[in-house]
Amino acid sequence: MPGELVPAREDARGPMSEFSRLALLVSDAPRAQEAADKEFRAVADWVPLEEADAVVVLGGDGFMLQTLHAMLDSGRIIPAYGLNLGTVGFLMNRNRNPETLLKRIGRAKRHHIAPLRMEATTQAGAQHTFCAINEVSLLRETRQTAKLEVTVDDKVRIPELVCDGVLLATPAGSTAYNLSADGPILPLDSNLLALTPISPFRPRRWHGAILPDRSRITLRVLEQEKRPVSVVADQRELRDVAEVNLEIARDSELTLLFDPGHALDERIVAEQFVV
To answer: N or C: fewer beta carbons within 10 Å in the chain?
Structure first.
């Protein structure tokens, strides 16, 4: 991470922390704005994001994803501590007593997440590069099913997958869209990726694959004009794609901060026992 981290002074609110310059980012949601104004703006001497060595994010999972993507786009990545003022809050900590916030950050555990890097080529030949923290999904654009060629590490594994779409999920994203598409839940430290079809028609018995995260995956659209396909990298969509190349972006690792006992890996385990 760029810049030197200066230890914070110990005070009545918590133990020594490696983060002395904290930024506060607040979702536009009324609940988050109200909490920030009434409770959180007064608990620390907040600094602008570009001067911070860590950021506190008030909102839900969607706003946390926006914040992390903004870091990836800027090239300056710092640890993020989320407080859930949204709905699910899978990437967030519980919103508790604001007066203990600095103490909680001082005791927080780090969890590192490497996003997917997507390089997509459109039918017109334009090339685009996006990152995805949860998943990259290819989806049919019309009533026509998609036809895709699936290649892993330069070897064609499925010459023609007829489906509504297909997605590649990280462990952090395996409990999101991937789980809804009947994909597997991956432990956070598994070094694996989940390749999951969405409503596959042929081969009908193929239910996806679990791949090492060092794999390079290429998804090529067949019959592109007749069966147009879009690609979505988390919250960014690109239409009429011809080919999508995917691999882990190891040079863009992100850091999330979690309260002890409330970490992302524990949530991934717990999700498997929800009935």
So the answer is: C
